Amino acid sequence: MTTRVGVIQFPGTNCELDVIHAMTQLGADASILWHGDPTVNGVDTVIVPGGFAHGDYLRTGAIARFSPVMQAVADFAASGGPVVGICNGFQILCEAGLLPGALQKNAGLKFLCEPAEIRVETSRSVLTNGAQVGQVLRVPINHFEGNYICDASTLAELQAEDRVVFRYVRNPNGALDDIAGVCNAARNVVGLMPHPERASDRLLGSQDGNVLLGSVLSACAKVS
Q1: How far apart are CA 177 and CA 181, in angstroms?
Q2: Domain that holds residue 30
Q3: Could you tell me if 212 and 137 are in contact, meaning their C-beta atoms sit under 8 angstroms apart?
Q4: Residue 197 annotated in active site
Q5: 163 alpha carbon, distance to own chain's centre
Q6: Closest CA to 15 of 190, 200, 215
Q7: Residues 96, 61: contact at Cβ < 8 Å?
Q8: 87 given a catalytic annotation
Q9: Taking the chain, what is the end-to-end CA distance rounded to the nearest angstrom?
């Protein structure tokens, strides 16, 4: 059975078609979920893509987290459904309380659009079950507010529970503990700042992102 991937579109989202293309190339049936609809339409996995939802007014993701679809996403995640937030999607998941911590402005206050190397720190997540711990992936970043922060107790919890999913090999944005991505306690919700959909074709310079996107599809197969 073909995996059904739902990609949420907010006003200001700009990576939804990239994600759909990448997932379709991997054999999935990917389609848009409109932010104003209070349902995930029976999909097998939800991806919250990058962009500038609602213009990033107030804070990144601060308005998007109140969209009707987000309650459906929260319910889907609570039932064990795989949810991935990429870049702005990571920010939205943090604002919605589905992931711990927050993303603030990059160190140096510069927008970053460049290749980055990230190291897989755990294979126990819906985004890394097909990766090897220690594996280094070349995946681009494209953000101004990608500097991950959390309080000391949350950081200790993430470290103790093996919930830091990715770290930057060379920290580009000042993120605490070099964190590029984290997961929830159930390991079915993951957020990361780099864009795996932009590293999904050899013409893009890297296919390393397929390791991650393929892992999501594998996780769906296991759930079903």
Answers
A1: 11
A2: 4-223
A3: yes
A4: yes
A5: 14
A6: 200
A7: yes
A8: yes
A9: 10
Nearest to 128 by CA among 183, 195, 193, 48: 183
Average pLDDT score, the chain: 97
Of the listed 35, 54, 87, 183, which one is catalytic?
Answer: 87
Catalytic residue among 95, 121, 145, 197: 197
Q: For position 182, which CATH number holds? A: 3.40.50.880
Given the residues 15, 145, 195, 220, the one annotated as active site: 195
Respond yes or no: is residue 195 known to be catalytic.
yes
Whole-angstrom distance, CA of residue 171 vs CA of residue 187: 24
List pLDDT tens digits, range 29-75.
999 999 999 999 999 999 999 999 999 988 899 999 999 999 999 99
Q: Are 218 and 42 in contact (CB under 8 A)?
A: no
Burial class (CB in 10 A: 0-12, 13-18, 19+), 38: exposed
In this prediction, residues 161-188 reach a mean pLDDT of 98
Structural domain tally of the chain? 1
Integer Cα distance of 192 and 145 in angstroms: 12
Q: Locate tokens 């104003």: which residue?
A: 36
Query: What is the reported pTM?
Result: 0.97
